[in-house]
Amino acid sequence: MTEPTSNPPPSCPSDLAFDEWLAAELTPERAREIDAHVRDCARCRDRRAAREREQAAFLAAAPTFADHAALVGRPAPAPVVGAGTRRRPRRAAWRWSGAAVAAAAVAAAAILVLRPTLDEGGERVKGPPHLTMFVQHDGQVRRGMSGDRVQPGDKLQFAYSTSDARHLAIVGRDARGAAARYFPLTGPTTALAAGARVSLDFAVQLDDVLGREVMYGLFCPATIDVDAVVGALGKTGQLPALPRCTVNRIVLEKEPTR
Amino acid sequence: MTGGIDALYRQHAPAVFRRARRLLGHDADAHEVVHDLFLSLFERPEQYSRSSSMTTFLYAATTNACLTRLRNARTRQRLAQENIAAVAPTSAVPSPEHVALLRDALERMPEDLAQVVIYVHLDELTHEDVARILGCSRRHVGDLLERAATWARKAEAAQ
User: Fold this and answer.
1) Do A145 and B55 make contact, defined as CB atoms within 8 angstroms?
2) Domain A75-254 has CATH 2.60.40.2550
3) Smallest Cβ distance to B35: which of A4, A63, A69?
């Protein structure tokens, strides 16, 4: 049996090695070899670009596993949407300072100016209700994803997408186990109109508590007691039962400022 | 694994989808493979032993999942109706013998032979890569390929 003529040239990494390289799974030595190869190989630069396009297209359709489950018409596994369920309860001591909240309005203005194309009128909402996050770091704004690495001082802004009117609350729990509400800042939730990537008029600045921070967008058919949700999240590490709500979970890994 | 399912999904699902679509030639089926595979990892994270890279593990898991689907009679019937055009590599025009071998591999070949044919002729991996995925020696990969070729010749002669 002969090798097909379409095989990559022997000097080019195989698809497996290429995928491992992109996933940062290779030894540093092997990774450096492929780094150097790709710099000098037009074919492999094209491969990388194609992979990046494929990845962007796939994740645009289903940014999270829960989104993907909705895409294929299957239920998402409960722990994915009921975030923090396996965390050990810790002392609740919310660290989101008043100063940070006060800075939020300023941050929001900056992000809104830097991100002129956020709202896309008329775009069809795909999948279940979900949040889109934007991260401002060192003056640059990027679209954030669950699993992103962020740093103290980074600013976050959110947009929501839903195909029908929903009450929305955004809450979170940091690495020390402290929980807080981000949206609405006070009072009960109110129904938000259906729309695609509608900006929420607030931003948050990340404090200096390092480690994993989990944020939850709660899309519910009726108003919810946000303070009670935050209380349960801080006390037990788990969201309380939220019947008929869709939970969108965003995980952030907060690392020291470089 | 539990806490990182979304990170894992974001890192690897696009590549799993790419391979599954290439093997199955059908977007909806490929999406179902992605879902089943990551749900399985979520529910039974211990199946990934960390003896290889996650990418290597997922190559094997995707291949197995796709082979199972391809051997499902209903899938086979639908793919036959769609001429299974996407089974062939997209990067080159394969020979008719190559396409015939792939079809045999995907539909009827013994599973161990089908896997190695897919890795070598569809994914275009090196024998060393295949050995890593299968957890065997390069020599064994060569033996499997020889057996696959023999199987294909016999199948062709029997037709």
Assistant:
1) no
2) yes
3) A69
